[in-house]
């Protein structure tokens, strides 16, 4: 199965949560809007000055030479001038102050010479300049923020700019999380010979936390079918989605598969992706189920490719952002065989000469979590491509952005 087919099937199968709630603006960051927010007030609410200077009639500006205008008053932000600016007059004005009646133009103070109640302006100024018009940012009735938007800091500002104190949002998505494998130990415990600490659950916790999800942790579930079935039943009763790692390939102890066949409807897919070929997707009770491969990098790559978009959709987010891809010059040689899309891990940066360059973060095995920890991007190698020689252009998908 191609990545695209798997992504489409998953997005088509999941449901957006129905319940909504209202939250205080202070708690709205990262939440998903459950309804359109329309503007009740125009921003700005009145024409105002973009500069400190003098408000005057555009018709009074000299075409050539200079003109002397009488200063008849002052308009400060929060304390407008109540009179009218007549011919040959002006008002001392400050940034953000309402334009006085009669005036339609502001000359910044650096371009004017003030002298005892009078000001001299020169030519080269344009009628209408330096004025911010009513509603030029937001007009009354316009959709300020649309349903399905995951709110960013500027959105909180937009809502506050409308005088809003509370906003309608979808309730938080609940996700149950567990890992499988008798070899796993909880951090803090003593590690037996051949054991390893459960790193997947913590990496997944981090990725889920970034999505603002309410997490129900079921810990490590050993290779015990009855226990797996019990956890699946409880998880499906408590959560909108279940995410697990391990036990999805073909090993004899991959009991998750049997437990799932008992508890729900799931498909076992082989996807043309590396790392992360084996993936399980389906439902257990009313919950969507995602069974990720156990290898730590495979678990993270498949989370980003398949689980994250699905959880965002379920949480009400729409449209989903299209992942950013750009070209960079690859400084490493990369091993690659045609047949799978590969998500190798890299560090991308400007080279100082106007180019973006990328190099791989060491060994690229799907168990090498260091390769992910040190990376700031995926190097995305297409399905049918072969090895990459240093100096070639490759597609890069950055992890970073403003936060
Ligand atoms: N004969 C085949 N063997 C394997 C295949 C295959 O197609 N045929 N696929 C390989 C690929 S690709 C992957 S990925 C893994 C996926 O296997 P599972 O999902 O069943 O994962 P496990 O066998 O349980 O574990 C794989 C690996 O990852 C380690 N692991 C598991 N859970 C965690 C955790 N929570 N934290 C840290 N590390 C974890 C585990 O110890 C194993 O080393 O199968 C290949 N085999
Ligand atoms: O998922 Mo596996 O190699 O593709 O780790």
TrEMBL record:
It catalyses: adenylyl-molybdopterin + molybdate = Mo-molybdopterin + AMP + H(+). It holds the Pfam family MoeA_N. SMART domains: MoCF_biosynth (SM00852). InterPro entries: MoaB/Mog-like_dom_sf, MoaB/Mog_dom, MoCF_biosynth_CS, MoeA-like, MoeA_C_domain_IV, MoeA_C_domain_IV_sf, MoeA_linker/N, MoeA_linker/N_sf. Its cofactor is Mg(2+). It is an enzyme of class 2 (transferase). Residues 176-313 form the MoaB/Mog domain. Its EC number is 2.10.1.1. Keywords: Magnesium, Metal-binding, Molybdenum, Molybdenum cofactor biosynthesis, Transferase. Pathway: Cofactor biosynthesis; molybdopterin biosynthesis. The keyword Magnesium applies. The keyword Nucleotide-binding does not apply. Catalyzes the insertion of molybdate into adenylated molybdopterin with the concomitant release of AMP. Belongs to the MoeA family. This is Molybdopterin molybdenumtransferase.
């Amino acid at each position: 199965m191609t990545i695209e087919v798997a992504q489409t099937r998953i997005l088509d199968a999941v449901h957006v949560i129905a319940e909504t709630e209202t939250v205080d603006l202070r708690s709205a960051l990262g939440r998903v809007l459950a309804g359109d927010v329309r503007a009740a007030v125009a921003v700005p609410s009145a024409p105002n000055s973009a500069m400190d200077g003098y408000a005057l009639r555009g018709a009074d500006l000299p075409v050539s030479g200079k003109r002397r205008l009488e200063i008849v008053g002052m308009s400060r932000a929060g304390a407008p001038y109540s009179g009218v600016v007549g011919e040959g007059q002006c008002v001392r004005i400050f940034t953000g102050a309402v334009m006085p009646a009669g005036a339609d133009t502001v000359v910044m103070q650096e371009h004017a010479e003030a002298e005892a109640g009078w000001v001299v302006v020169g030519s080269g100024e344009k009628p209408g300049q330096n004025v911010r018009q009513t509603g030029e940012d937001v007009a009354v009735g316009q959709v300020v923020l649309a349903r399905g938007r995951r709110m960013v800091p500027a959105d909180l500002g937009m809502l506050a700019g409308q005088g809003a104190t509370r906003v309608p949002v979808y309730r938080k998505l609940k996700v149950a999380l567990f890992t499988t494998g008798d070899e796993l130990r909880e951090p803090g415990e003593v590690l037996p010979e051949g054991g390893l600490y459960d790193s997947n659950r913590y990496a997944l916790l981090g990725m889920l936390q970034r999505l603002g999800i309410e997490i129900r942790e079921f810990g490590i579930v050993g290779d015990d079918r009855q226990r797996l079935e019990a956890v699946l039943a409880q998880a499906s009763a408590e959560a909108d989605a279940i995410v697990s790692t391990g036990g999805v390939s073909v090993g004899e102890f991959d009991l998750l598969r049997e437990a799932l066949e008992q508890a729900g409807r799931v498909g076992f897919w082989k996807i043309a992706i590396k790392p992360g070929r084996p993936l399980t997707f389906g439902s257990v009770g009313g919950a969507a189920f995602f069974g990720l491969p156990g290898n730590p990098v495979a678990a993270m790559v498949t989370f980003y490719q398949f689980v994250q978009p699905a959880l965002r959709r379920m949480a009400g987010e729409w449209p989903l952002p299209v992942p950013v891809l750009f070209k960079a010059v690859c400084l490493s040689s990369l091993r690659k065989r045609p047949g799978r899309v590969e998500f190798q891990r890299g560090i991308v940066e400007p080279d100082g000469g106007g180019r973006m360059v990328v190099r791989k973060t060491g060994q690229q095995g799907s168990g090498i979590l260091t390769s992910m920890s040190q990376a700031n991007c995926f190097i995305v190698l297409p399905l049918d491509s072969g090895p990459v020689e240093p100096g070639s252009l490759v597609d890069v998908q950055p992890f970073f952005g403003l936060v």
